Amino acid sequence: MFFISSETRSMRCKPVDSTPCRTTVLRAAMFCLVTMSPAAHAIDVTVSAGSSVTASRDFTPTVNMDVHGTTRHWSRLAWQPVVSIGWLGGRDIRPSLDDNTAFVAAGTRVVDWWRGAFFSMQVAYVSKTTDAVSSHVQFVSTLGWEGDTFVWMVRHISNANFFGGKNLGETMLLAGMRF
Question: For FRET with 155, which of 7, 18, 38, 175 sits at 20 to 30 Å CA-CA?
């Protein structure tokens, strides 16, 4: 369990009963997966890994898992609900970028518009803030291509300067597999 402190304007996880915040983030992700993708609906899981860069031009490893729901249609647009869980490694170059960060995101993904290309927009909650992801609320945009087995994508996570901080953002180049 966790609670959000009302003493400050920033959202900070404070452990209660010694449960770490990352466990809470993972529980929230599992809740989103269960509620968004009931057993009756087909789901598509993508696991990807790669490298992320921020304005400091230093790279760090990143791992992501995306779960897509059933394709739905609105007019001529095909879209899917999507939930993502990700991890960004810390960097030893500056104290303001040295923390590992986990995130959970949910949103929509536009598919089947050009030879396997897709685009998604999501809202994310980030476990720890750094100069690159400077608030707990972030926006995630992804442009990629998927085949029957392989996926390549460019993903950007940033708070769009809505929530303050340095707002350097993280841009990831990812390759993965579909299951």
Answer: 38
